[in-house]
Amino acid sequence: MSQSPRRRNPLIVPFFILVPSLIIIGLGIVLIRGDQGQVSSGMAPTFRLPLYDGGVFDLEAQRGKVVLINFWASWCGPCRSEAAELNAVWDTFRNRDFAMVGIGYLDNERDARAFLAEFGVEYPTGHDDRSVISRAYRIRGVPETFILNRRGEIAHVIIAPTTISVLRPLIEQLLAEDVQP
């Protein structure tokens, strides 16, 4: 009895080429995205943020001041817990060489305005339309707080709700530095 040669499945060769190729592509994407982690040092990305009160916060115009940038959302429980603390920071430092801005993240205007009213937020606050600023700072969630020195460099990043007892010494240290912008 003669045996006929075994026929190979025509999909085996493409399978052994396609699967390793997809693995290599996937690893490449992971490695590339890994290089795009949190912005934690160097010059802060500049931006102009339309504010809920109708003004504009221009980060470049704040050069020479210590700047606190807080990313928040009305739906964020930890953001609610830090709201009074951030108000206290603003009340403490607003009359010094200090600027502060709240940047609403993935929120709608109605809910954001209700949040601001509920917590009596007085510092400049606006909405990050199309998440342009959030992407520039590569935030991963809210709340996130960035503190910039007078030169516009990122000095501190806090990825969690924060308090005035944490922020006060950081801000005071930066205000005490005699640094030309």
TrEMBL record:
Write out the entry's keywords from A to Z.
Answer: Membrane, Transmembrane, Transmembrane helix
Keyword Cytoplasm applies: no
Pfam entry (one): AhpC-TSA
**Transmembrane helix as UniProt keyword:** yes
The transmembrane segments are 12-32
**InterPro entries linked:** AhpC/TSA, Thioredoxin-like_sf, Thioredoxin_CS, Thioredoxin_domain, Thioredoxin_ResA/DsbE_sf
Offer an example of a GO molecular function term for this protein: oxidoreductase activity
Give the matching SUPFAM superfamilies. Answer: Thioredoxin-like
Give start and end of each Thioredoxin domain: 38-176
Signal sequence interval, chain numbering = none
Where does the source fall among the domains of life? Answer: Bacteria
This protein's name: Thioredoxin domain-containing protein
UniProt source species = Candidatus Thermofonsia Clade 1 bacterium
High-level lineage: Bacteria, Bacillati, Chloroflexota, Candidatus Thermofontia, Candidatus Thermofonsia Clade 1
